[in-house]
Amino acid sequence: MNTVTRRKFLITSGVVGGAALAAGSAWTLRDVFDTATWDDRPGDAKTLVLVTLYGGNDGLANVIPFAEKGYREARNELAYSAEEVIKLNDTVGLNPGLAGFKRMFDAKKLAVIRGVGYPKPDHSHFRSMDIWQTAQPDRPGNTGWLGRWLDTFGGDPRHAVSFEPVLPPLLAGATSAGAAVPVTGLALPNGVQTATLEKFGATSAGEPALQARAARAFADLISVDTLIHSVDSDTGDEPDEQAGGTGTGGRSDLKAQLDLVARCVEANVATRVFSVSLGGFDLHAEERDSQESLLKRLDEALTGFAERMAKTEAGRRVVVAVYSEFGRRVAANGSDGTDHGTASNMFLLGSPVRGGLYGEQPSLSDLDNGDLKFTTDFRSVYATLLRDVLDADPQQVLGYDRTFPGLL
């Protein structure tokens, strides 16, 4: 297949990511696997998997203060009874959709960090996510916190990989950026068969490097598409399904994304950071069932991933961190949903994690204009991840070095 024909097909076909791959501006799964031969990763180096929950995950529907005065009055139909929650102790419990999280908590491999937020919170999805991804609460900058880490680490994009069609800001540094590896399913134009695409994916001896890379991109698109559809058929989920939330970013195929992360970890690639996401949490109406469905999806994906990681030496050095841009208002609105709020929870899980409850549970009686007051600065969690997972200096990356002792 000659270069002109392949490039013309890429640009005109509408195959996701095709034009970018042909131009050499995106990366493929095979590019990531190529790093398994590198020798720049210490034998005891840990891996961070960052899970972004887009839309504003309702912390009071995750870690539920069922015994606190005022909870049922504020939540009305959204409230869970003491009999419904999965109890962590006599005052708080997990959402019924998080049964796997409870098993990890009991095994001391899940840390629940409560009341996480930042000063002068912002209710805008976009500004709040900018704050979380840049780790600059006073004034969001133009570099992500993990992008700045990558600047200090050497700069090769494959050290920080996002399975997204567009690189999230958190992986953009001042002098370098992570690798966006698009893994959405194929959308072939009318009249084009998979067999045709397979021919495009066959490389030719002596062809130019960029042409060969474009060919590898086609091959990767086919293999990843097969993987994603096999995972979706196992779960019964459609790839584009959202559980009732408004469109605020993120993806629905978290299990498929984590399966790709697992394959990379098991191949001992050089990547130290993976970014994945789940969307749909902006639940302004009919929240209870949709939230529980989303949390069940999160639980199944992360529980399965953690069990798989526990089986290998490389997997036992993986730490997963889960966050969202903000929590929700304490009181339910008039549509059996909740509106944009402030403090929420973070979850850390994996073999290196010392499980338990961390941080102070925000009070339901001492509110800031109807919002929870944060008790844990999110930068302290980031600082801990930088120091204890990525072996980096939090002060250099964040300008902040207060950490959680004993969390990892």
Automatic annotation (TrEMBL):
<protein>
    <submittedName>
        <fullName>DUF1501 domain-containing protein</fullName>
    </submittedName>
</protein>
<dbReference type="InterPro" id="IPR010869">
    <property type="entry name" value="DUF1501"/>
</dbReference>
<keyword id="KW-0732">Signal</keyword>
<dbReference type="Pfam" id="PF07394">
    <property type="entry name" value="DUF1501"/>
</dbReference>
<dbReference type="InterPro" id="IPR006311">
    <property type="entry name" value="TAT_signal"/>
</dbReference>
<feature type="signal peptide">
    <location>
        <begin position="1"/>
        <end position="22"/>
    </location>
</feature>
<feature type="region of interest" description="Disordered">
    <location>
        <begin position="230"/>
        <end position="252"/>
    </location>
</feature>
